[in-house]
Write a structure and sequence with these properties.
With 355 residues, the protein is of the alpha+beta class. Helix content is 25%, strand content 33%. The strands form four sheets. A six-stranded mixed sheet has the order 7-8-9-3-10-11, with helices on both faces. A five-stranded antiparallel sheet has the order 2-1-4-5-6, with helices on one face. Strands 14-13-12-15-21 form a five-stranded antiparallel sheet. The radius of gyration is 25 Å and the shape is elongated. It binds adenosine-5'-triphosphate (ATP) and magnesium ion. Magnesium ion binds next to α1.
């Protein structure tokens, strides 16, 4: 997609949206509600006409404002799984999956063959005559995926396909989507506000912010290690933000009177603005020597890690320690006073947008 512009009335949702997805890649598009994710893929699939830009699928131009090309959705060969109307309740599983082919007037025998293939791929063989109401939520989603496969096993777009499912089923579906992808080498564009699902499933993640622009594209590791801005930092994973300030030569957490934490200017401090430190719960270390003192307010055991809520001045910080770290007898009790040290902290302009 290149230089795509889409407005609803006077509200321009996508201003100049460009995105390239490589063959065989799973790309996640994440971003806050209303930022334009669904709009972007509606444009890709041909359900709305951009005012500007070009869309190319496998080398074939399917939309170009300039060249007046506009291929209808059913001929773009993109499989689609939408959450709202994932399956049609009044059609059997077979008819649901056959629908995109019937619409393209594919011969009956060919339809039967491809439906059977798609059901096999999504592990729904044997359910042909079931109605959706006779299926579980997870099975309905599989039918939706099978239907997408009959449109194309080349490119599939999924818009929040599994948010209705419970956590365990969701996990299973993610694994299955991944397996299906590696079997068929399908290109998948996966839209969600669930950044964890995106990180688990996707090769690359595209992060959109409220104004419809893309603020970062990269692997989950890129996002975690080098978030492009404060928005990405706060969007990916749990984060703490603490205002900081320089006071008579030392750097202080700007809490109460100021709590000094560094005698030298920390790396990454931005000049000329009010700074805020972004710090991950895993990057706060308990250190008795540290001048930053806090009190454990709450300690929650989460199996592989401990989640601590630590009060420092008037702020509550999230701290995580892996259970392995804690096996050395250092488990912290509620009410206990601790020293805190920061690793890998980032600095942002306190005025910058966050989630
Ligand atoms: N048919 C429409 N008419 C007018 N405005 C619309 C229409 N569809 C979407 N919008 C507006 O466009 C913006 C983007 O909507 P879109 O559905 O693309 O968001 P989204 O990123 O998919 O959000 P969510 O995560 O909630 O699904 C929103 O402000 C929405 O109100
Ligand atoms: Mg949406």
């Amino acid at each position: 997609m290149e230089h795509i512009r889409v407005s609803y009335g006077s509200h321009t949702v996508l201003k100049d949206f460009s995105l390239t997805v490589e063959p065989g890649e799973i790309v996640g598009i994440v971003g806050p509600s209303g930022c334009g994710k669904t709009t972007a893929i509606r444009a890709l699939c041909g359900f709305l006409n951009p005012e500007m830009g070009e869309i190319t699928v496998n080398g074939r131009t399917v939309f170009s404002k300039k060249e007046r090309v506009n291929v209808p959705p059913e001929n773009r060969k993109i499989g689609i799984v939408f959450q709202d109307y994932a399956v049609w309740p009044h059609m059997s599983v077979y008819d649901n999956v056959a629908y995109p082919l019937k619409k393209r007037k594919v011969p009956k025998a060919e339809i039967a063959k491809r439906v059977s293939y798609a059901l096999e791929q999504s592990h729904m063989t044997g359910y042909e005559n079931y109605m959706p109401s006779q299926l579980s939520g997870g099975q309905q989603q599989r039918v939706a995926i099978a239907r997408a496969l009959t449109s194309s096993d080349d490119i599939i777009v999924m818009d929040e396909p599994i948010t209705n499912l419970d956590a365990k089923l969701r996990e299973e579906m993610l694994v299955e989507i991944r397996l299906m992808q590696s079997r068929l080498n399908t290109t998948i564009i996966y839209i969600t506000h669930d950044q964890e699902a995106a990180m688990q499933l996707c090769d690359r993640i595209v992060i959109m912010q409220k104004d419809g622009s893309i603020c970062q594209i990269g692997t989950d590791e890129d996002m975690i290690k080098n978030p492009a801005n404060r928005f990405v930092f706060s969007f990916i994973g749990v984060s703490n933000f603490i205002p900081v300030v320089e006071k008579s030569g030392s750097w202080c957490l700007d809490i109460g009177e100021g709590i000094p934490y560094s005698g030298v200017r920390p790396k990454g401090i931005l000049p000329g603005v009010k700074n805020v430190m972004g710090i991950r719960p895993m990057d706060i270390i308990f250190d008795d020597e540290s001048p930053v003192r806090g009190t454990i307010e709450q300690s929650v055991f989460l199996g592989s890690l401990f989640n601590y809520f630590v009060r420092v001045g008037d702020q509550e910080l999230r701290v995580q320690r892996s259970t392995l770290d804690s096996l050395d007898g250092r488990e912290y009790a509620e009410g206990q006073e601790v020293g805190l040290r920061f690793l890998n902290e980032k600095y942002y302009n306190a005025e910058e947008e966050r989630v």
